[in-house]
Amino acid sequence: MTFVNKQKQRKGLSRLWHAAGYSVHGLKAGWTEAAFRLEAVVALVLTPVAFWIARNWAEVALLLGSLVLVLVIELLNSAIETVVDRVGPEWHLLSKKAKDLGSAATLLAMLLSGGIWLAALYHALLG
Question: Where is the catalytic site (predicted)?
Fold first, then answer.
């Protein structure tokens, strides 16, 4: 049996180590995307705010988790767009649909995060 990908042959800590390296490469690739950079900067700015407005660790986790969710979905959206562009640069209805679905997922994650943050701010400042 011939393996094309050496990662599939690795075991234990070696596999984990190399997988972590691939993840770092993915984060670097994500950083080349303007939307991901903007969302990452917003997350960095809001991180200390989460500790200020939250009343307990669960609220901090919810606030920060919602920000991380937006970043995760943005990375997946970028991956979808990259694969679609790899398949071909010409316009196709299925390519448009795939990109639109990824964009919709990002929008929903942002709306969820925004709702969580607005509710937390309301309770911290007015509640």
Answer: 74
